[in-house]
Amino acid sequence: MRHGKKINHLGRTASHRDAMLSNMASSLILHKRITTTVAKAKALRKYVEPLLTKSKLDNTHSRRTVFSYLQNKESVKILFDEVSQKIASRPGGYTRIIKLDNRLGDNAKMCMMELVDYNMLMLTDKPAKKTRRSRRGKGKAKETATDVETASVIEGKDAES
Fold first, then answer.
1. Which of 31, 46, 94, 113 could form a Cys-Cys staple with 52, CB 3.0–4.6 A?
2. What's the rounded Cα separation, in Å, for the pair 146 and 8?
3. Average pLDDT of 138-149?
4. Angstrom distance (rounded) from CA 69 to CA 67
5. Cα(14)–Cα(107) distance, rounded to whole angstroms?
6. Is residue 139's pLDDT more than 70?
7. In sequence order, which residues have a C-beta less than 8 Å from that of residue 140 and are 6 or more positions away?
8. 61, 135 in Cβ contact below 8 A?
9. In this model, does residue 131 exceed pLDDT 90?
10. Which residues are CB-neighbours of 116 under 8 A, at least 6 positions away?
11. Please, what are the domains in the chain?
């Protein structure tokens, strides 16, 4: 049984795993997109999403906390200066994992992990969201009432002219 075993150890010691996740998080912040295995990407998502949330509040304490995880001044600077501005309105889910073909050498499942707000193709191709309406008909009655009012106002203006 695997009760309470949430951490994927990735076949590494704790210090090696922390160093690897720190380097991968720095690379993701600097390059906005990295290619890695699916298991590492899922572990990295748990590691980097709290750091991205912490970057929304730009003060000395949060900068020092994030630096203690990343150990890279340049990635901390980019995170707080430009990435936090883009993700300011997003309530969570800052990363996206897109699965790719298996790796040629060992057939490992590969993926591309990216910051959501930096993929311009996905941001521009998005169709407009449909507004939800209840099926009870209450919303339809309100729409027709406003349509009738606007039509009468327009006709009234035409009559005055």
1. 94
2. 56
3. 56
4. 5
5. 26
6. no
7. 133
8. no
9. no
10. 87, 90, 93, 94, 95, 96, 122
11. 14-124 (3.90.1030.10)
pLDDT for residue 157: 54
pLDDT per position as a tens digit, 17-60: 999 999 999 999 999 999 999 999 999 999 999 999 999 999 99
- Tally the residues of the chain: 161
Q: Is 81 exposed, middle or buried (0-12, 13-18, 19+ CB in 10 A)?
A: exposed
Q: Give the model's confidence band at 158: pLDDT under 50 very low, under 70 low, under 90 confident, else very high.
A: low
SS3 per residue for 127-156: CCCCCCCCCCCHHHHHHHHHHHHHHHHHHH
Distance linking the first and last C-alpha atoms of the chain: 82
How many CB atoms within 10 Å of residue 89?
8
pTM for this structure?
0.74
Instruction: Please say whether the beta carbons of 51 and 22 come within 8 A.
Output: no
Are 108 and 36 in contact, with CB atoms under 8 Å apart?
no
Distances (CA, A) of 77 to 43, 73, 161: 23, 6, 62
